[in-house]
Amino acid sequence: MFGLEKRQRERLRAEPFPSEWLLVLERNAPFYRRLPGPDQRELQGHIRVIVAEKNFEGCGGLEMTDEIRVTIAAHAALLLLHRDTDYYPKLRSIVVYPAAFVVNHTEVVEEGGFTVEGPEARLGESWHHGAVVLSWDDVSAGARNFHDGYNVVLHEFAHQLDQEDGSVDGVPPLDDSSGYRTWRRLLEDEYRELREAVALGESTMLDQYGATHPAEFFAVATEAFFEKPVQLSATHPALYEELKKFYRQDPRQWLGYAWAR
Q: Taking the model in full, what pTM does it have?
C-alpha cells in the first residue's frame, strides 16, 4: 500500500461517522448492534473507506442512494474485521440492479460433455477483475434477515477474498503454508461430503449450491459462518474453526443463539 493511500484511509477511518449512516446500520445491518464497541468503530471506519474508494453504480433504473451504499459496505466490511486488509484491491465497481438480473449463461454439462446456453436470472455476481453485481431486492432482504443463512453480499464478497490470490478455488489467501495444507484438506473433505449428500437427496445444513464448485462452497460456508454460527459449529466443527481463524471472529459470541437459529 502506498503511503498516500494509507494516510487517506487513516483519515477516512478517523472522521466522524454520519448520523444518517448510523440509522441505516441500525435498520439494515442487525448484526451491528450486537458487535462489541471496538468492532462497531472498526466497522464504521471500513465502511467509510469502501464507500469512498469503490464506484457504486445503479443499473436498470435504480437510483443510487447512501442507504444502498452503506448497507452493502457494512456487510462487505464485516468480512474484514480484525484482519489486515487492502479493501478488496481488485474491486473497482459495485453495480446494483433493482431486482434479479438476467445474464447469458453458458454451462458445460459434465455427464455427456455438451454445452447449454441461455438466459439465467441471478441475484449476484463477483467478477474476477473489477466488479461485484448485486440485486438490491435481495441485498435488502438478506440484510434485514440476518439469521437465515442467505446473504448475497457476504456470498459475493467472499468470492472477492477468494480471488485475491488469482485463483477461484475456494482457498483464499492464508497466512502460511501449513494453513494452506490444512484448509485444502478440509475443503476437499467437506466439499466431497456435501456433494455426496446432495447426490443422495439428503438434507444439509449448508446451502446445497455449495456443492457446485469449491469456490461456491467457500462462499456458502461464509454465509453460514456469520448467519448460522451455532448450527455450523455443531454440524461442521472443523470447518467452523478454520473459518474462525481466517475471519478472526467468533460470531457465536455476538449473535447469540436467538439470532443464529
A: 0.89
